[in-house]
Write a structure and sequence with these properties.
The chain has 68 residues and is of the alpha+beta class. It has three helices and three strands; from the N terminus they run αββαβα. The chain starts with 7 loop residues before the first helix and ends in a 7-residue tail after the last helix.
Length: 68
């Protein structure tokens, strides 16, 4: 049987933690910063861990990156 391809867009945007959870950049910081409070902007720094439902979709895009 042939190999499955990894979605290039997912490969660039998501990383996996040691326990297999999916890390993603925070959403909502591309534009419209004037209407957001400074507290909101601070909270949107860095990365976040995706929910179980969203992780399932991302793991299907990256078949060889998932542990166990």
């Amino acid at each position: 049987m042939g190999k499955l391809k990894t979605k290039s867009s997912a490969k660039k945007r998501f990383k996996f933690t040691a326990k297999g959870k999916v890390k993603a950049p925070q959403a909502g910081k591309r534009h419209g910063m004037i209407k957001r409070t400074n507290a909101q902007i601070r909270k949107l720094r860095g990365t976040t861990v995706l929910s179980k439902q969203d992780s399932k979709i991302i793991k299907s895009y990256m078949p060889y990156s998932v542990r166990g």
